[in-house]
Amino acid sequence: MKKLLSYPLTALYYLFFFINLLVFHPIQWLCLKLGGYQAHKKSVDIFNFFLMRCLNVLGTRFSFDNPYDIPIEKPCIFISNHQGMYDIPPIIWYLRKHHPKFVSKKELGKGIPSISFNLRHGGSVLIDRKNKRESLIKMSKFAKYLTKTNRSAVIFPEGTRSRTGAPKKFAVSGMQMLFKQMPEALIVPITINNSWELFKHGNFPMEPGVHIKLKVHEPIPVASDDPESLVAKVERTIIADIK
């Protein structure tokens, strides 16, 4: 019965999803042109709130466990495992006061209404994973931008999403670059569980009734250790809570 219901519910979800993409693209453009960064950011926050609400059609729930009072006076480096596209909206929404900006592959910078526009104009960095030298140069500029503006980075060091929930090996160069360039920042590890289950049957139908859980771990000052040790500590912390 559950599998049978998943077909019409997934169709309804995709209808709402694409409506959101199309509606918020011109809204973002107008906000950026007329109100600058702050107006654009608010439109992106609301856009991601509605992306989460689209999944309610499938009975999806979100839990965001953050027992820490993370200061907004300094930039953060949010580091998380990666299980699917719906890892991103709750990070943007629940951490919106920290102005999260993403390290993303360059392919996502075009062709997707609303999402590509935000990646290009909202402060995120688009990298070519095949060009390591260029990527590190961009990461260095990204770190300086975040430090100057007191905004925060979000990085998924696995590179690509895990389709089974099992963690992949973390790539370390991007994290180490941010640590070296942002000595005053806080590292905030996040563990995401169950997001992969939405697409365990593929893109259609999607799995109904998934409970996506995000857990924020204790922040770590970048200055507390050397970059290599910090990378190892963050990876252990995140993986330890993956179910």
Could you explain how this protein is built, in words?
The protein is an alpha/beta fold. The chain has one domain (62-240). It is built from 6 helices and 8 strands, in the order αββαβαβαβαβββα. The chain has helices spanning 2-55, 88-94, 115-121, 132-149, 173-181, 227-240; strands spanning 61-65, 76-80, 100-105, 125-127, 152-155, 186-193, 211-216, 220-221. Strands 1, 2, 3, 4, 5, 6, 7 and 8 form an 8-stranded mixed beta sheet that branches.
Secondary-structure map with pairings?
Layout: H1 2-55, E1 61-65, E2 76-80, H2 88-94, E3 100-105, H3 115-121, E4 125-127, H4 132-149, E5 152-155, H5 173-181, E6 186-193, E7 211-216, E8 220-221, H6 227-240
Parallel strand pairs: 1-7, 2-5, 2-6, 3-4, 3-5
Antiparallel strand pairs: 6-7, 6-8
Helix pairs in contact: 1-2, 1-3, 4-5, 5-6
